[in-house]
Amino acid sequence: MRKNMLKTGLAAFVAASALVSLAACGSGSDSSSEAKSGSKDGSYKVGFVAVGPEGGFRTANEKDIQDAFKKAGIELIYSPTQNNDQQKQIQAFNKFVNDEVDAIVLSSTEDSGWDESLKLAKEAEIPVFTVDRNVDTKLSKDESPIVSHIGPSNEWAGEQAAKFVNDNFKDGANGFILEGPAGLSVVKDRQTGWDKAINSNIKVLESQSANWSTDEAKTVTAGLLDKYRGDNPQFVFAQNDEMGLGAAQAVDAAGMKGNVKIITIDGTKAALQALVDGDLSFVIEYNPIFGETTATAVKDYLDGKKIESNYEIESKTFTAESAKEALDAGTRAY
Amino acid sequence: MASERKAQSSNSVVKRLLSNNLTWSVVALIVLVIICTIFDHGFLRLEWNTNTGGLAGPLITVLQESARYLMIATGMTLVISTAGIDLSVGSVMAVAGAASMQLLVSGTNVWVAILLSLLIGLVVGCINGALISLLGLQPFITTLIMMLAGRGVAKVITSGQNTDASQIAGGAPLRWIANGFILGIPANFVIALIIVILVGLVARKTAMGMMIESVGINQEASRMTGIKPRNILFLVYAISGVLAAIAGLFATASVMRVDVVKTGQDMEMYAILAVVIGGTSLLGGKFSLSGSALGAVIIAMIRKTIITLGIDSAATPAFFAVVVILICVMQAPKIHNLSAELKRRRAVENSRKAVAA
């Protein structure tokens, strides 16, 4: 019995240490950088608080940023989180502040909760560049270390979706919105854009969250089609491609393909293909390729040049024809 | 006299029914269906969908959705009755789903892809089983590690992408498994039901179920009676791995697309909830496969209720939790004995008064 207990204790210890090492891997921070690399020798060290593998968009986006910094000759320390865990991002951010990097590039999973970390960065006089998702902070402009935001506009994307519905249903229509997880800034911004541009004769029967997931979107859409079958739903606005693809399958299974227009945001290859096949009706790109803009902005700022406080990255919209062209060109990275 | 006895016996039947967990699960399921029908008058409607070649309607999608819960809940029931737990089922779903989609995209035959995915589930289950039974590691920690590692493996398999096999023509059989119909009933539900019945037969018609329960009650004692707890432990985790892989195939084949972060997310929790609703003790030593199966359908039904009622997305976890707690309260023996307890107290009170008088 005693031997058994010893064994269990040992096992628990081994398991625990494995966990710790796993966690360490997750934060992926660079412990070898004790000394501060100044700008004296002309080389900068920049910390990248990233999201990590999440899907096609994120992979293309973070690879592009890493490549661009490499090209610009700036050392970029990549620190992804796992499963959208903000706590790990905050830890990585604070570690970068402690290591006194020259600048921090922040791609946050959530828009709030950054005030304390931002204060630390301000005290250490480290400039922060937010990319993709904006950060919502209570700090005034003088207290905040954020010098610039680089990314496509989510509000713009929402507006494009609304405009497409307006143009296609001049006499009004009913439909659904599939949202991302509640509370994300992306979800709010895409919704704001939609609300701003949509005509009053377009009625959203119900907005439901499908958590960015294809599988969940299929279930939710099937449920909504059942529930509102008497209301003649004619459009589904899915806030990302993954959910739009799920909605398309539910629409297809219900035998309503062609009668329900599905609009999605992101512009991944799978969505463009579905657009060509007629499963989707309209895809709004959310352009992930802004590594070069980011690297240039960071370098210019550190070199003492003046930079803009906001770089809005241009995105495209796709219909079946332009999607076919884009796919045939074969240059899409994601 | 005779009528009195009859009344008594029918009374005891009612009593037995009331104290049975299964009854309350059925009641909960019916209540949920009634609530949905109030909100959506067409909730019970069934029609023939010529597009899919099967029945269509809200209840049919519940059955379709419940197939995956049936699989993981069955595996989880066996594991929990050995006083263990398998937290890795959600990740195994993602790994198996990722493997099948990636294999399909790379041009592998669909049946080979299915078999390999199941094999991967089996291997993960066997690793869990080996670590727990041979090395005596704690099930919670072992499967927790596997849960973290599995998600990583899924990402490695697809190189971080959400692999989409919907364009692959050869994937039709897999798509049928998740979306097709057998005699009008969803194929995945029929397959899941057959597997549950097979596991039930093996567990209850042989001594296997009893061995599993005895290991759950006391490993040392069951070893002394000639049962090999190690083999039993290994077996239940291996079974759980395979069943989770099947659930993963159901989940990904439904849309022919794996979502490395979302596929199987939180599934271990749903599996545990289904098992608890089904009346299996988390302390081990007792299990009810039919209860867990009913629990799995209830989980799918709660999710359907959330959509039908149009509950705000921010409030859905809270709604889910409240429903599960209500079901558990309904099943609690303390609640069933409440009336008897009150009667007893009143009697005691009366007798005390009588004495005082």
From TrEMBL, chain A:
Pfam families linked: Peripla_BP_4
GO cellular component, one term: cell envelope
InterPro entries found in the cross-reference section: Peripla_BP_I, SBP_2_dom
CDD domains named in the record: PBP1_galactofuranose_YtfQ-like (cd06309)
Molecular function, one GO term: carbohydrate binding
Keyword annotations of the record: Signal
Subcellular location: Cell envelope
Signal sequence annotation: 1-23
Transmembrane annotation, as ranges: none
Family: Belongs to the bacterial solute-binding protein 2 family.
Name of the protein this chain belongs to: Sugar ABC transporter substrate-binding protein
Organism from which the protein derives: Galliscardovia ingluviei
Automatic annotation (TrEMBL), chain B:
Transmembrane segment boundaries: 21-44, 69-98, 110-137, 181-203, 232-251, 271-302, 314-332
Coiled-coil residues: none
InterPro entries per record: ABC_transp_permease (IPR001851)
Entry membrane topology: Multi-pass membrane protein
UniProtKB keywords: Cell membrane, Membrane, Transmembrane, Transmembrane helix
Pfam families reported in the protein's UniProt record: BPD_transp_2
GO CC terms in record: plasma membrane
Main subcellular location: membrane
Source taxon at top rank: Bacteria
GO molecular function, one term: transmembrane transporter activity
Keyword Transmembrane: yes
Location of the protein in the cell: Cell membrane
Name assigned to this protein: ABC transporter permease
Origin species: Galliscardovia ingluviei
